Amino acid sequence: xxxxxxxxxxxxxxxxxxxxxxxxxxxxxxxxxxxxxxxxxxxxxxxxxxxxxxxxxxxxxxxxxxxxxxxxxxxxxxxxxxxxxxxxxxxxxxxxxxxxxxxxxxxxxxxxxxxxxxxxxxxxxxxxxxxxxxxxxxxxxxxxxxxxxxxxxxxxxxxxxxxxxxxxxxxxxxxxxxxxxxxxxxxxxxxxxxxxxxxxxxxxxxxxxxxxxxxxxxxxxxxxxxxxxxxxxxxxxxxxxxxxxxxxxxxxxxxxxxxxxxxxxxxxxxxxxxxxxxxxxxxxxxxxxxxxxxxxxxxxxxxxxxxxxxxxxxxxxxxxxxxxxxxxxxxxxxxxxxxxxxxxxxxxxxxxxxxxxxxxxxxxxxxxxxxxxxxxxxxxxxxxxxxxxxxxxxxxxxxxxxxxxxxxxxxxxxxxxxxxxxxxxxxxxxxxxxxxxxxxx
Length: 441
Fold this sequence. Notes:
The protein has 3 domains: 2-69 and 404-438, no CATH class; 73-148 and 327-400, no CATH class; 155-313, Tick-borne Encephalitis virus Glycoprotein, domain 1 (Sandwich), CATH 2.60.98.20. The protein is 13% helix and 37% strand. The chain is built from 2 helices and 31 strands. The longest helix has 33 residues, at 406-438. Pfam families: Flg_bb_rod, Flg_bbr_C, FlgE_D2, LlgE_F_G_D1. It is found in: Bacterial flagellum basal body.
């Protein structure tokens, strides 16, 4: 019996050495989770059960436990490297076979799909054809690397202050080239359907107490008559701006539809019928349509504009158009949203990474390549976005290091070696005793 007990001890010590050696070998493996040997003692049993004073039959390896405690998050600077700080696993698909990993090595393949270093596709919530995030619809995440299409300007929102102490200009009529014919001016870039930039200039002329007019030119030309070469081409659109005796814009302005700049009666105006033009570069220049689709209407929002005793100022300006843009970078938030940044200053959500968690993570089945699969013991995965529920946060540009503690493993290595030697000594001693019995006369 002692031979078998010693053999079971040697076998257990050998298995302990293998597990410890595997931990040490993977001390630098990103996303690796260390294991430990969990041993159990053995006792002989019979139909009537075990005796109270049995000496035992040795030891066996009851389980190889996985320790999913957090590893160190190390910064890499690579935009698509990701680490999970807290609970959860990345979900990857190998041609439909779902696997789970903590190793956040990610990049893109030739088709733009986000893949790990094994070529497995990262799962998440993709975006629809209109750019809307599809919450709850899990699929392969893919980055659009094509240029972002331009967007024509449809709204220009401004907050201005007109100086109430200004006087009516002495020189008339209005001339954009003569600053003495108006009190103040500003300009904003707007974009046509092809992404070409145009300058919308606004000139403010005081007509009397609490009464102003706003003149509008686009590229120095009348937006509705931009093809001409004569002086009429520089005749602006015009709309009246009236203020209360407290300096607030009166929303209900007169409708000036004939000029192409229409009041909506609420402090906003519509620039209707603008056909983008371009100059032929000659002197005098001839302006012709540049081929971009005509813009049906551009909303000009002046709500919040005031007339106070202070210098003319543009307090805020915002327009919603932009030119075409090339992909210039990626940003991933701690909730997993992937933002693409473009050279035109725009950004767009391209998907959201999801994480999976299990009721019993120790029950996951390791399959190599720092991946696990679901098992009956682990339970079914709970899928969600980072920072939701009990799921951890995502750290982009970082990787989670192995959670192996080398100093602890080296001590365990020594202990396993001593156990091996001690069990070998048990066998050696039993052999000596047996030999003594054989040598009896």
